Amino acid sequence: MIRLLQILFLGVIAFQVQGQLVNVRVDYNGVGDCMFTAVNNAKTPLFLNIEFADLQNTTFSEPLPYVKQLEPGNNVLFTLPRYPGEDVPRFNYKIKSYRSDPKAKVNLDFPYLLPFTPGQTVKSFDVANIDGFWGANNLKRWVAVGFVAKPGEPVCAARRGQVVEVVGAKRNSDPESWYNTWNNSITLLQPDGTLMCYRNVVDKAKKLALNKVVHAGEVLGEVAPNVDGIVLLIYHNSLLNDELRFVLPQFVINPGEISLVNPAMDITVVHPYDIRALEMTKRERKKLLKRD
Fold this sequence. Notes:
Blueprint: E1 4-8, E2 22-28, E3 34-40, E4 46-56, E5 66-70, E6 73-80, E7 90-98, E8 111-112, E9 121-125, E10 145-148, E11 154-156, E12 161-167, E13 185-189, E14 195-199, E15 201-202, E16 213-214, E17 219-223, E18 229-236, E19 245-247, E20 250-254, E21 257-259, E22 266-268, H1 273-276, H2 282-289
Parallel strand pairs: 8-20
Antiparallel strand pairs: 1-2, 2-3, 3-6, 4-5, 4-7, 9-10, 9-22, 10-18, 11-17, 12-13, 12-16, 13-14, 14-18, 15-17, 18-19, 20-21
């Protein structure tokens, strides 16, 4: 007999996905194996964590903790095999969904590009607060990087990323889809599962679309009106608690040299080929950089 179980996840903590955005489906096939699939009802990727308890008549062989990136739409997860000669598998499990990878493996020495046009001289500033980043919640621990900039200046992607949110002066979308509560911001999902939010950056040219990939060094947008700088936040969720984990990036300040930045430094922007190409495929390098 084939049985069907569908579970709708309701988020309950900050930055855990709220509402019925993830459906996990379990089908029993003709020999009693359990086939898990998931539907991501969001327009951008989500990360699903499943924890099992009381497994009977089967075994779970996936790496633990189990976290799977879900693309929008249908996703195949895994199969719980039925032990030969035993009853159908029985189990209890719970799921959580996140907008970033809660077990992201962050390389603290990753070389981020300065997010401005090569040849420009830039200066950073100390970010005093990130008020309004997530509603009225005051985060206990955070780090951010600020750069002095003038309205209208081009802003480049510091690292390859997939566009997951573009917000102008006002938010008009469903709060269920929000990645934070800042206006005039662009958020990218980076290859390591972290999110990078560019605050005070707008897509005036309307060139960005959800899920578009923007490569390191490509123009992302421009500095918003009536501001004197931009703020960069890199962060991801955690499996241990509902607090966000923040990352302080190192930037390329000279070819072959990376460093944390501080307001005492006047830095000439460089975008070396090897850094721009670092997370590109061969085809992308040939198309965008005109080199193999």
